[in-house]
Amino acid sequence: MLIFAPKELHPGENRTPLVPDTVAKLVKRGAEIAVEDGLGLASGHADAAYAAAGATVTPDRAGLLGKADMVLRLRKPPIDEIALLKRDAVHVSFLDPFNEHALVDAMVSAGVTGISMEMIPRTTLAQKMDALSSQANLAGYVAVIIGADRLNKVFPMMMTPAGTIAPSRVFIIGVGVAGLQAIATARRLGARVEAFDTRPVVEEQVLSLGAKFVKVDLGETGQTKDGYAKELTPEQQAKQREAMAKVCAQADLVITTAQLFGRKAPVIVTKEMVASMKTGSVIVDLAAESGGNVEGTVLDQEVVVNGVRLVGLGNLPGRVCANASQMYSVNLGSLVEHYWDKDTKAFKLNIEDDILKGCVITHGGELCNETIKGIRAKA
Ligand code: NAD
Question: Whole-model pTM?
Answer without folding.
Answer: 0.95
